[in-house]
Amino acid sequence: MTLAGHTGAVAADRPSGDSRSTASVLNDAFAAAGREFGVPRDLLVAVGYGETHLDDHDGEPSSANGYGVMHLVSNPEHRTLEQAAELTGLPVGELKRDSRANIRGAAAVLRAHADRLGLGATERSSVDAWYSAVAAYGGADEASTARLYADTVYGFLTEGVVQRAERGERVTVKPRKVAPERGAYAKVLPPGTSTGDGAQSEVGILSADYGPAHWVPAHPNNYQAGRSARIDKVVIHVTQGSYAGSISWFQNGSAGVSSHYVVRSSDGDVTQMVRDADTAYHARSANPSSLGIEHEGYVDNPSWFTDAMYRSSAALTRHLCDLHGIPKDRAHILGHNELPDNDHTDPGPHWNWNYYMQLVNSGGSPMTAGSPTDFTGDGVDDIVTFTQNPEADVYVAASTREGFGGAKVWHDFFAPGGETPLTGDFNGDDKDDVVTFTKGADSDVYVALSNGDGFGPAAVWHDHFAPGGEVPAVGDVNGDGFDDIVTFTHDAEANVYVALSNGSSGFRPATVWHDFFAPAGEFPALGDVDGDGDDDLITFTQGSTADVYVALSNGENGFGVGELVHEHFAPAGEQPRVGDFNGDKKDDIVAFTQGANSDVFVALSDGSGFGGGQLWNEFFSPSGEFPYVGDYDGDGKDDIVTFTHNAEADVYVATSNGTDGFINGRKWHDFFGTPGETTL
User: Which residues form the N-acetylmuramoyl-L-alanine amidase domain (predicted)?
Assistant: First the structure.
């Protein structure tokens, strides 16, 4: 089933089966360069993916003055751009701006390193033999950082690569087993590691200021010892480069720049490079009074901004604010672009400030656009808060249709810190239950069923689902009356897995229901858009284009092709949610702008798409609050709620009039959902 009126409008990076261009510019270039210079094609792709996610950034330089998909660099300490020009005879300008030339130049540089290392033809045919050449390509001054760079590339070879490049071209590397021949690097430990006998790399194992971070000191030229002002703000940056490359750049004495921390995209790994007590060179006039956090990636490519990165960075920012007495608000947690006396644009339009600030203040509110909360089974949605502290209590305040009653403990240990709690009716008794995704090595899924007055014992309903940085969601995707669990891998592959509820004691084995939907940087959701009783996939691309795509459920084993259903809704910085606001059994979409105006816009579903966005409320859920949706007065139309998540912990509701607005906004609870808790 397709959405009428929207066929043929699929974006360049939509699921398989669309009609977009299948040009093979990069694939042809990687294959040709590999053949010409005797470099394994997959190795070339892995190097490029690690450097830029195969994005040429329209010929614009990185922070280290690197160009193109292969990040050929021209700076005082590292000149692979000029080296590539000499080796290939190509003009520097062409190497900067033409992806074919850039890939060819990188292959030539890698081959030169291989020749210097004495690799023969037989050795060059094996990716394992190229380890030292790859380490040299990264250009790090420190051996431990060079190893980090090479290990990252070989990690991509192990895991495989699936990337939608410019114009929709799909570039892949199949996963393989690797046994890299590290040579001299075998005796070099990556940053922040140690051997069993107490040996360690030339940098410290852990940061003194933030325990989970590695300590890798920047070059003394790139920061100033001590401070001339009190620390009163945190500044968010984007590296315009790779994780290992940025660490290497800050170790380069000619860089003249640094940051206190660097966060990796893939898993949220953190490296500290300047002590909190010292002044990093990252924000000009704000340097003496600020702490800088760099995030791996590029401003114009949202695929770098993974959920793992957001959560790790938010935990770091929360720690720094608590440690240094910095208020956790947007007046004190700023983007580089928001500071006076600077010309930078990072973190840019794709950085999701509202989600980030919710994570900073709540300790990990889920990225979810809707999750039902009728725990008593009376047809009216209630509110729930998960304390997510060592006690891990769960409180519910039931709706009276005109307010929320007193908060009561419904479970005394569920969803401790680090887990992702959600809600849904998993056994079909019309009472919503609670579910938590542990997200650890085991990635277990626990459910506690509602009895109408509390939640029963937690039981494992799935033993491996939504690991790592995946984004879980809940919905009835096959229309059988039992809510199921869904996970968006939220990475370059952008797979969507579903585990159907058996209605009594567990979820069935997970299967792929879509092979490309909601990649990193987008905001995924579930909702019954066409009103057929099966929940469908929705994704908000956010950013500057702010498109909305839907893939309809077939009710059995998959979702259809993603179709463009709205061309501008919930751009970066706004919070999208899904609910039935006019009571027609078809889910609509709502955006909370959360800016100075704090407007609320709704686009109603007509069963085949969404109409134009209309203003439904002129001031609701300002910045720093957590907005949500539910039918709190029991009239069959979803309303809006906001949790202030501050010391007052107020809860406000505005009810839907079913046609064109949310009205009667007022306080429904005066203390619920304190800072650090997760509310739904």
Answer: 219-348
